[in-house]
Amino acid sequence: MATASEIAAVGVIGAGQMGSGIAQLAAAAGCAVLLLDADPTALSRAVASISASLLRLAAKGQLSQAAYEDSIKRIRCVSTVQDLRDADLVIEAIVENEDVKKKLFVELDKITKSSAILASNTSSISITRLASSTKRPSQVIGMHFFNPPPIMKLIEIIRGADTTDEVFAAVKSFSERLGKSVICSQDYPGFIVNRILMPMINEAFWALYTGVATKEHIDTGMKLGTNHPMGPLQLADFIGLDVCLSVLRVLHSGLGDNKYSPCPLLVQYVDAGRLGKKRGLGVYSYG
Ligand code: CAA
Ligand code: NAD
Questions:
Q1: Measured in angstroms, how far is the CA atom of residue 159 from the centroid of ligand 1?
Q2: Residue 120 Cβ < 6 Å to ligand 2
Q3: Which residues carry the site feature described as Important for catalytic activity (predicted)?
Q4: According to the model, what pLDDT value does residue 6 have?
Q5: Of 215, 281, 203, which Cα lies nearest the Cα of 242?
Q6: What pLDDT is attached to residue 4?
Q7: All domains of the chain, ordered by start, with CATH?
Q8: C-alpha 24 to ligand 1 mean position (Å)
Q9: SS3 state at 66
Q10: How far is Cα 249 from Cα 173, in angstroms, rounded to an integer?
Q11: How confident is the model at residue 11, as a pLDDT?
Q12: Ligand 1 atom 36, closest CA
């Protein structure tokens, strides 16, 4: 198994909001990146957004023109899981659905080299259960990035029941190589950050649903009243309402407490395809 400094090739699966940012970070850290998505249009959007994000960093003097070009060159878009066979580390960032993720882990287990570490960027799903779908549960780990990955300073690491100390140490130092601070969570639903954040977002939906105030007043209240960079409804749109709903459902079923029951308004928005900023419409609309 590769140590953090030996991780040379990184596979990223899911080229959405998170996967594109994770691919960017790994490329900027000098890794060869293989970026895979089931939807080819997601790959072209990801390449454009990575380029724009790197240019923003270059404009602030945080990246040279040469480093910008090298990072872009290190990212190769691929179309099948087989293309990831030589990766030292694979980071999965596909849809927040346990069955779909397990199916992918079964495939990854078959095609990646036996030394490869398999990581999930899941927001809430049990790492132990994802790991148990493979024959290498000791090499499966949660590597939870925050949105937007190039800017947010944290990675939350979650060990499954069988993750070894060696795998944990490699992923922790690799996270530091990406320039992030690390926290460690036990493998409980929603881990640390979403266990605390999602009930707040859900409560903001209840406040809107029950007519406590307008969306603007709820968000302004939390921005100016508690110094959050975004109000909770704006943040939900930014994360994706589908992701928020999936996480709340995992918290509700996994912790068995009605306080995590998703607000009907959030459910209705997701049913209506109002998934937030990425779709141009959520709580707010985006031009
Ligand atoms: N790439 C590169 N740079 C970026 C960027 C990106 N993708 N996004 C923002 N930036 C930079 C901007 O260039 C800007 O830099 P300067 O200040 O040096 O000019 C800076 O970040 C701030 O950006 P903006 O001025 O465009 O906008 P902003 O001040 O509103 O900040 C934000 C944007 C950083 C996203 C900020 O609003 C914020 O921190 N919001 C909260 C984000 C948050 O809570 N994320 C976690 C969500 S929970 C999660 O991720 C876990 C989960 O499982 C759901
Ligand atoms: P997204 O909807 O922006 O992107 C998901 C991508 O995965 C899409 O491009 C989709 O085509 C692709 N995909 C779906 N199933 C696939 C499969 N079987 N094989 C290959 N590609 C597939 O979602 P996102 O916001 O980037 O979230 C991805 C993961 O990251 C989820 O597990 C989510 O919970 C987690 N996460 C999200 C955030 C956030 O703020 N959005 C933060 C941290 C973690």
A1: 27
A2: no
A3: 144
A4: 85
A5: 281
A6: 78
A7: 9-186 (3.40.50.720), 195-279 (1.10.1040.10)
A8: 15
A9: helix
A10: 32
A11: 98
A12: 229
- Dump pLDDT digits (tens) for 81-91: 999 999 999 99
Structural contact between residues 219 and 265, judged by C-beta atoms closer than 8 angstroms: no
Residue 113 has what pLDDT?
A: 97
Tell me the residue ranges of DSSP E strands in 1-59: 9-13, 32-36
Atom in ligand 1 nearest the alpha carbon of residue 244: 54
> Residue 203: what pLDDT?
98
By the 10 Å C-beta count (0-12 exposed, 13-18 middle, 19+ buried), 147 is classed as: middle
Q: Does this complex have an ipTM over 0.90?
A: yes
Q: Is 29 assigned to a binding site?
A: no
pLDDT, position 2: 78
Ligand 2 midpoint to CA 94 (Å): 4
> For the chain, which residues score pLDDT lower than 70?
none
Contacts of 108 (CB under 8 A, 6+ apart): 13, 81, 84, 90, 92, 118, 134
Q: Where are the beta strands (DSSP E) in the chain?
A: 9-13, 32-36, 75-78, 89-92, 117-120, 140-145, 154-159, 181-185
Q: Annotated binding residue at 21?
A: no
Ligand 1 neighbours, Cβ below 6 Å, are: 53, 56-57, 60, 123, 146-148, 150-152, 194, 197, 229-230, 235, 239, 243
**Residue 38: nearest ligand to its CA?**
2
